[in-house]
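Homework help board

Subject: predicted structure for assignment chain

Our instructor gave us this sequence and asked us to write out the predicted structure in token form, then describe one feature. I got the tokens but I'm not sure how to describe them. Can anyone check?
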Amino acid sequence: MESRFIQLNNKLKIHTLVAGKAVNPPLVLIHGWPSSCLLWRHMIKQLSQKFYILAPDLPGYGKSDKPGNRPYDLNFLSGFILDFFDAMDLEKANLVVHDIGGMAGLSFAVRHRHRLEKLVIMNTSPYSDWHYIFSFVIFLLKQPLLTPFFLNKTIFKQILSKGFYNKSIVSSDLVDLFLNHWINSLEGKKAFSQTIAVPQIHMVESSRNLRTIDSPTLILWGKKDVFFPIRIAQKLQQDIPNSQLIGIDKAGHFLQEEQPELINQALMAFL
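My token output:
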């Protein structure tokens, strides 16, 4: 697995994990909030045996540039995926997305379906009526005076743990993996707030638009997600005509951390 920096046409430098042979079918992995491309670290080795893996840090996340003058809304994030495809010379590719990356991926599938082979959606919220627990947490996180409080390692660990079915997985090292890219620079601290400052309505496509997605679609969902319950996945399956849903047992929001082997099996079978 190689770490690279890719410059987009808009001059943003994007940190990307690259693995596998370039002659293999391309598979782009897009993480969500508050993680980074390292969310896929347990899965990349096996997937790279069959696919050319490209796992970027979203703008504002990880080691990628963190522009302070742009709203991190759906237009920006789905546009990022298009810019990344262009920078990597991907005429078409398979796309796997999670959380905020899932919102961006669904928008990309609506707007640029001719660039997609197959689409895999994991634990995201494609509708603006977010679960009240998640909405309340995001409301608190948006308060500037509370940002230092939430970036405290102990508090961050408590919030992060709610995204896991198996709380014992949330070790100090895992918390550092999720947290350090936010706290190691002033840019990162600002980006922490900027990436969630966008109103919910500006982060989702309409159900009518979702129904236009015609790429073969797999919906993989951790059944124990308290932020994005599986009923969201069931509604999404109804909205995307050519889709199938697989619920993952003993997994919460971060199913890549809890059940990477099961997810890889499902991905391999689908792709």
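Reply (TA_rk): Your tokens look well-formed. For the description, you could write something like this. The chain is about 40% helix and 20% strand. That's the kind of observation they're looking for.
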